[in-house]
Amino acid sequence: xxxxxxxxxxxxxxxxxxxxxxxxxxxxxxxxxxxxxxxxxxxxxxxxxxxxxxxxxxxxxxxxxxxxxxxxxxxxxxxxxxxxxxxxxxxxxxxxxxxxxxxxxxxxxxxxxxxxxxxxxxxxxxxxxxxxxxxxxxxxxxxxxxxxxxxxxxxxxxxxxxxxxxxxxxxxxxxxxxxxxxxxxxxxxxxxxxxxxxxxxxxxxxxxxxxxxxxxxxxxxxxxxxxxxxxxxxxxxxxxxxxxxxxxxxxxxxxxxxxxxxxxxxxxxxxxxxxxxxxxxxxxxxxxxxxxxxxxxxxxxxxxxxxxxxxxxxxxxxxxxxxxxxxxxxxxxxxxxxxxxxxxxxxxxxxxxxxxxxxxxxxxxxxxxxxxxxxx
Length: 376
Hints:
3-stranded mixed sheet, Alpha-lytic protease prodomain-like, 2 domains, 6 strands, Alpha-Beta Plaits, 10 helices, alpha/beta
């Protein structure tokens, strides 16, 4: 219930900030369009268009947030959280379109220049727009970071950049009035290029989220520490968090336990872990695997020490875990994490480890799992 209330508060916060951004950008666009038309300034006009695209971006952010907040249903049992990423992609596409369109118009003005005619009122409006955009950007970005909204954070950062754009327009106007040098079209080109760059960066960040990125190290470490606090846990490994939208994760993990634990004790432990992780992070652990730790077997302990020493001496090896030796049935298992940038490649290092351990214990059936380094 607490997590549902938190999600509801998050949605309302995003919508409220987005509505503020929409209203502010519409007012700014109207004033700038008027100034651009009266003064015949391509830079001011493009700045007004940019404000309109920002307003539309905020509208799309609202729509995406509303769609993402819909309850899970039969067709989408894990919710609709990823809709926020789709809305962010649409925002990025709009920014790119605005940038390309502005670039084309600016180049036309360079080829066929027209002198601008600024008034004192025009300069005051542009200066005011700089201040408003700066304040709006700081507000929207801070809210976006607070509620972990990629679209809102991007909108805030874009607004901060827009304040710099408006400032450049103001500077070019002052230069024209003082020195008679028209930089209008050239400033428009620079603005357009920065808008295009911003759009590409927004698109890349969103695509990265959809494809899947590393789990934030602070979050993964906090979850592992919470799990490790359980008295029966001897180690925490292989944490995987599947993202279904901002702050919406479903996870799995492996924990090491003594080989003397009974099934009912393991069941009680996994239930405690599930409850602790959900209460603290709102994350459902759909799977908790078990690594059995040898106890009371001196031969297995010696094997563990020797295997760990040899494996960790290999360049590129990050970690080895999940070691278990069945000295009666002659089987040995463990996992190894190898860096993606390991010399010669992960598969080569893995092959070398398999060969060396097999030669070290020829009488044993060796099972080595190549794990993936997915957390910072």
